[in-house]
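Sequence in, structure out. First:
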Amino acid sequence: MSCNDKHYDVNCVCDVVKMIAEIQDVNTDFSCTTNCLNPVLGASNNHGMRPNTRVFSLYTKSGERFFASFLRNNCDDAESPFFRVESVEDCCAVLRVLELEGRNLSMCEFRATTQCIIVDLNCFCGIACIEDTFVPGV
């Protein structure tokens, strides 16, 4: 999705992230396939836990994937392009950096890091939803 896409009457990254924040706060028993514009979080993951997070990546206006740094438990610096929205006000969002556990996106599990960043969503032009999943500790 880009800033100029009029798909589903959602025309920018800011609106999509606001919608994701709203659906993460709603408890429902519905299950749907995952994409950024689904109004509910998807079906249970392979651990039987109801998803509580819509994992997504952001793309800069130059088309590059956005990465944020975080510290691993062993104090090594790491980067991740995966986020969970914690809150949004206007187009200012608090995003929690998520770490992909394992190397295979087809069987991925995400871990919430302690790193949160504040971003201006107007600075991004693309968003890609990865999956709806249960992230412990959020």
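Second:
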Amino acid sequence: MKAFASDNYAGVAPEIMAALVAANHEHQPSYGEDVMTKEAIDLIRQQLGGQAEVFFVYNGTAANTLALKALLQSHESVICPDSAHIVNHEVGAPTAMTGSTCLKTANINGKITPAWIEEAYRSQVRWGAHATLPRVVSITQATEFGTVYQPKELAAISETCKRLGLYLHMDGCRLYNAAAVLNVSLAAMTTDVGVDVLSLGGTKNGLMFGEAVVFLNPKLAENFAYIQKQGLQLQSKMRFIAAQFVPFFKENLWQKYANQANQMCQVLAEGLRAKGYHHFDYPVETNHVFVRLSSDVVAKAQEAVPFYIFDEKTQLARLVTSFDTGLADIDKLLAVL
């Protein structure tokens, strides 16, 4: 049966695999000068704005880290919720690569608020040169808990950033799930609300590998090509990353895949409730369920199907649906539980 540990466990969508095979014919110019990379960039610009500057990288950690490196000097800092991936699950890569500190705030279901941003900012600048100078706010859409910022929430955060002279970075590894559940365009949650730089995902929604750093504020992309190369993220055969994004956007597969994962997650949540599992720690909005299980259930269930325990003290399980999760997979998991 399929795993519920992570959408990273899923394989590659058949349309994406076909695009990779098609990209393997004939020779193409290297380092992004091929026709597929140019087409993929055009398609991303159609989604996010014609002025966007787009750079493909291998993975999400690289996208986040190099995006922040483009925005920061070592005496500056990043404001983010304490649940953020950049502070918990990237081995300190942003700090190692930039020399900059992450200023952690509280979170509400994974989300930061304008008030907390301002508090973190004021707590630093009051000390002048004895503390860091906040320069970036980093948020995740959808959040690490699968919850979603509404466009009005994003607009309020953006307004606070602009007032304080901060850049707004978005980790969009599951941006598609958020857009699908809100039934809005990708631009409605990024360009339209004032996001400056976006880490645009792919691998959690059917791609084999590859993400993109998208500068929605194109002025910030100056010299990023050097940062990309120095950061070990300039692929010589760039077409194999880019080719995946062509059908992904051209055929609207991003929405199809995200809808499937989201819908299966709702089915899973309903099935869990029917089985008597009512302790959900976070709202089920995209493709994550955080549910409390008893220790004896966990021990037996994990032998049959992979999933993670997010908090061992409370036996809080994280169950994640993917683009290829089906009703039969949900039924099997519920039967195991």
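Remark: The first strand starts at residue 53 and ends at 57.
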